[in-house]
């Protein structure tokens, strides 16, 4: 028995329990769309390919499982680039399918021909360009294995239109494919010895802990062995940030307690973290044990290329003790930090964001890029894994709205709130049509200060003047209503809770526009120092 290649792809994805393909149709992928139409998988139609891939990204982060996105060739595939880079920088597992011209036209400079594999190769774990039906099916099977068991990140497969129409045998569709996951545990005994002898051990949890499904065992180890924990941005919520041993985020935007712990620990156990320059801002000179399945990120003194959960299952059985005086100091610093936040004078923008965040602490917050990002980072206590969604390593404006769509498809029974500035909102606002079409009850909070506020702040600090940052915005409430979405303006701080309650009870898409002043965000000490000597 033989299948059309397009049908074979969908049969394989159905076996992987894929429910959605996020995308935009086009000529080169018509056979695949026809196959989706006849399957249990649902194609979610976006107004722009960038929106589709950001939605797939949000779905994957919220669901802890790879997501699938689809575009046509040429312009459609190129519209994916922003989202591919975002997923690559944040190690988000995506299966990216792009259409392409027939194989006999390759290299002839025909209409819409572009070397999409050459473009995507630097920002994917793999970019496949199969030129036969057999190679296509094997590339897909290999990709699925990598997405489930290998280091996380985007994988791309290029789909030539003629190959999609060709036939493949059912035996190939059912064929088992093995891949070798590279690991290096050669220094495991060294790591255990260092952990046993440490006096001031600090655990740093990165996003890899979430992807490994290791939150539960990590929490158990932290509580039973009384080891302080700090996180990177993607790992926030891996343990409830109100828990006594969780000190919060470390690094450039880190808490006082987290950064003090990072500066004074004698051993740092980095789990599923990349140790970027922003994280290293909060770290002194400890001996670093780093555990990561992705070899690209290993830079510790003792490196283990292995699964984080497997490592924790080993660590759970060994004796570890932490200096009591140091631990007491960290707990006091955490209390001081919370008191400072509670009692400090806060700006209007900060007040508004605090009210949004405190209104429903269990809601999933999707954060766009802008000045509001800083306020959310500083004000939000994250109480559960994957409940604060943001691109911490790439930070594209316009990510929030489409990512929230993906989050809502992944978590239909949870409240989803996207916080976005007027600048970022207008980069992907066409996806309001997608939200309305699928009647997704997402609460959209647009903070409107009529400017690109962070850029304004930097310009004024560096050049004593701002330029080309003022925004002449439309009426966002009327705009939302033109899409058929309920919308309201918040006129003063007193009415915000009433409007939030109304929006969440409405059980349909709802947009709130909030006018905020052009207020400076607090800058970390290291950034202030750069400004004082000129930007380098």
UniProtKB/TrEMBL annotation:
Its EC number is 2.2.1.6. Keywords: Thiamine pyrophosphate, Transferase. InterPro entries: DHS-like_NAD/FAD-binding_dom (IPR029035), THDP-binding (IPR029061), Thiamin_PyroP_enz_cen_dom (IPR012000), Thiamin_PyroP_enz_TPP-bd_dom (IPR012001), TPP-bd_CS (IPR000399), TPP_enz (IPR045229), TPP_enzyme_TPP-bd (IPR011766). CDD domains: TPP_PYR_POX_like (cd07035). One of its GO terms (molecular function) is acetolactate synthase activity. Coiled coil: none annotated. Its cofactor is thiamine diphosphate. Residues 5-117 form the Thiamine pyrophosphate enzyme N-terminal TPP-binding domain. GO terms for cellular component: acetolactate synthase complex. Residues 189-313 form the Thiamine pyrophosphate enzyme central domain. Residues 368-514 form the Thiamine pyrophosphate enzyme TPP-binding domain. It holds the Pfam family TPP_enzyme_M. One of its GO terms (biological process) is L-valine biosynthetic process. The keyword tRNA-binding does not apply. Belongs to the TPP enzyme family. This is Acetolactate synthase.
